[in-house]
What does this fold into?
Amino acid sequence: MPLRAKLLTALAGDPDGTPAWVRELAEGDDTGYFAEDGAAWTVHGGLATMVAGIRALLIQALHPGAMAGVHDWSRFREDPLGRLSGTVRWIIVATYGSKTQTHAEVARIGRFHSRVEGDYTGGDGSARTYTAGDGDLVTWVHLVFADAFLGAHETWGGPIPGGADAYVAEWATAGTLMRVAAPPRTAAELRAQMQAFADRGELRRDERVDEVVRFLRQPPFTGMMAVAYRVLFAAAVASLPTKWRRMLGLRRSIFPVVTLTRVVLAVSARALGSGPRAQDFARQRLRRLERDAQPGR
It folds into this structure.
C-alpha cells in the first residue's frame, strides 16, 4: 500500500481519505460549532495531530479507570488503526461538521459507551466500578486530548488564532457535548485540572499502563511507516511535561526528535498531496449556506 494510502487509513480509516462521514461534512444546514479558520480549525487541521494522538493515548493511560475501559473493551491490539481512526472521526466531525452531524456522532459514541462498564483498582488502591459515562473519566479524556493537541501544535504547528486560551475555550464546547461538567476555558485551567487528578491520587502507573506504553512504542507497522512512527512516538514523549513522562516511566530520546519530527511531518504532507481534506468539505457547506443566504435566493 502506498505511503499516502497508509497515512489516510490511519487518519480517516479509508485509503482515499474520504469515507462517507468525511464527505458528509459538506452536508447540513448550519455552520457548525466552530468558526472557519478559528482556533479549533487551525489546531485540528495540522499534521502535528499525528504526534498529538500518541501523546493523548499515553497520558490517558495513567487513569486506571480509563485504562480499564481500554483494556476491557477496546480492540487496540487487534486493530490499532481502527481505534485511532475512531477517535480522529469524533474530533474531525465535531470540529468541521454541522451541528446535526456532530449530534449524530455524539449519539454514535453514546451507543457504544452505553455498553462499557467494569471494575478497576483506583489510584489509591481501592476497588471501584466504572462506566464510560462517569464524570471523572469523561473529564480526564477531554483534558488529555485538549492538552495533547495544544501541546503538539505549539511545538510543530503555526500560530493559533487567539492563542492557546482561544483553543481551550473553543474545545470546551466539545467537552460540553460529551457531558464534561466544567471543561477548562484557558490553558492555565487545563493544566490545573489535569494536575488536580494527580494531586487527588487518581493516577497511577501499573502493568496495564506499561503494556499500553510497550504497544504504543512499537505497534505492528512495517517499512517507512514503522520508521516514521518511531520518530513520532519519540516526539510525543519529548513533548510531554517532565512529570507525566516520569509517571509513565519514559525518557526523552538522545536524538534531536523535535527536528526529525519536522522532517517526518513535511514528508507526510507531501505524501498526502493536494487531495481533498476535511476542511475542504466543510468549506463547501459554508459557501453553500452563504449563497443560500443571499437576497433573492
Summary: The mean pLDDT is 88.
